[in-house]
């Protein structure tokens, strides 16, 4: 048995014993792409099923505060909760810019809650494939519900719909918030809407705008009609009803046999993310090919084929 296999065996044993430090170590190995982490994933993937809720929305909508309140609701019902807060990555250092866990610090002594920040790694403004791998580890560790809070910019809204069982879009009465959601095409992927900071002026107006837009939206699988919940996360107002809505959507997926399709789409997204990251790294070391594209000597397609198969290098 190799050193890596020994390390994987030891970590796997501790992981299955419920050692939180082993979970943290496994997440670090997976996020960094370490072979031991990949070996753990193969052994642990698909062993459990958690209710995965994606939470997205524009910056400043109160996603972290709302997530904090939803954690409390889940704990009241005896659920073990995992949270992945996907932070934006600096395009220069690759490090995470924000630390949304700060807003959830009240849970740090609760053994039934585990919160982890992940960097988006510049995945075109969206989720990194490591997020899906981390999800698989949290599921295998036995969490009943996992919240994935996204950066809320760029591609992340569309990505989260491919990863989560239920997608919650958080909007505010701020001017133009609903209009931006319509432009971005997020209306088609959200399963539920929360109009947060509903105590601010304009709350009723944005609900009416959402209702009007949803009347024109295409039908959802199984005939689901996305509900809209007014919330004030700072005080907890409306959060219990929102949590019940999340549960109702999950039960809808179960009743209509839609969960398996969600899991397959999640795996497809993960494979695509690995290919995308691989291509990005290979392109960084292909200065000659890139220069030839810039000079018009090669098409981007020819350069990409050369990276995929060096034998085809023109």
| Number of self-contained structural domains | 3
**CATH superfamily descriptor of the largest domain:** P-loop containing nucleotide triphosphate hydrolases
Give me the number of helical elements: 12
Helix content: 40-55%
What is the rounded distance between the termini?
43 Å
Q: Quick one: how many beta strands?
A: 7
- Please identify the top-level CATH class of the largest domain: Alpha Beta
Question: Order of helices and strands, N to C?
Answer: HHHEHEEHEHEHEHEHHHH
Describe the fold and architecture:
- The protein is α/β, with parallel strands linked by helices.
- It has 3 domains: 1-44, no CATH class; 47-256, P-loop containing nucleotide triphosphate hydrolases (Rossmann fold, 3-Layer(aba) Sandwich); 269-312, no CATH class.
- It contains 12 helices and 7 strands.
- It has helices spanning 3-16, 20-31, 35-44, 63-76, 129-141, 156-163, 177-184, 203-216, 239-255, 259-284, 287-294, 300-308, and strands at residues 51-57, 81-87, 113-119, 145-149, 166-171, 192-195, 228-230.
- It has a 7-stranded parallel β-sheet, sandwiched between helices.
- Strand 6, helix 8 (203-216) and strand 7 form a beta-alpha-beta unit.
- The chain is globular and about 60 Å long.
- The model is unreliable at 90-100 (pLDDT under 50).
- Keywords: Chaperone, GTP-binding, Hydrolase, Nucleotide-binding.
- Belongs to the SIMIBI class G3E GTPase family. ArgK/MeaB subfamily.
- This is Methylmalonyl Co-A mutase-associated GTPase MeaB.
- It comes from Thermus antranikianii.
């Amino acid at each position: 048995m190799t050193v890596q296999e020994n390390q994987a065996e030891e970590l796997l044993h501790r992981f299955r014993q419920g050692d939180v430090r082993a979970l943290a170590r496994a997440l670090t190995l997976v996020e960094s792409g370490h072979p031991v982490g990949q070996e753990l994933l193969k052994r642990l993937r698909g062993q459990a099923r958690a209710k995965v809720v994606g939470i997205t929305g524009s910056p400043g909508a109160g996603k972290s505060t709302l997530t904090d309140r939803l954690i409390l609701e889940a704990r009241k019902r005896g659920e073990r909760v995992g949270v992945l807060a996907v932070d934006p990555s600096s395009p220069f250092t690759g490090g995470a810019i924000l630390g949304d866990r700060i807003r959830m610090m009240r849970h740090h002594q609760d053994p039934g809650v585990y919160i982890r920040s992940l960097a988006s790694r510049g995945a075109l403004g969206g989720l990194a494939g490591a997020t899906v791998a981390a999800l698989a580890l949290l599921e295998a560790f036995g969490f009943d519900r996992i919240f994935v809070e996204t950066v809320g910019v760029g591609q992340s809204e569309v990505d989260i719909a491919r990863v989560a069982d239920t997608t919650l879009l958080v909007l505010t009465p701020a001017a133009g918030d609903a209009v931006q959601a319509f432009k971005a095409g997020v209306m088609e992927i959200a399963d539920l809407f929360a109009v947060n900071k509903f105590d601010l002026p304009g709350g009723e107006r944005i609900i009416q705008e959402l209702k009007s837009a949803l009347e024109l939206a295409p039908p959802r699988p199984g005939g689901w009609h996305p509900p809209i919940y007014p919330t004030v996360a700072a005080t907890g107002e409306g959060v219990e009803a929102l949590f019940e809505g999340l549960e109702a959507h999950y039960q809808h997926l179960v009743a209509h046999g839609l969960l398996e399709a969600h899991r397959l789409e999640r795996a497809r997204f993960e494979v695509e993310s690995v290919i995308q990251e691989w291509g990005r790294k290979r392109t960084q070391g292909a200065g000659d090919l890139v220069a030839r594209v810039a000079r018009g000597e090669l098409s981007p397609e020819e350069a990409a084929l050369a990276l995929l198969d060096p034998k085809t290098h023109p």
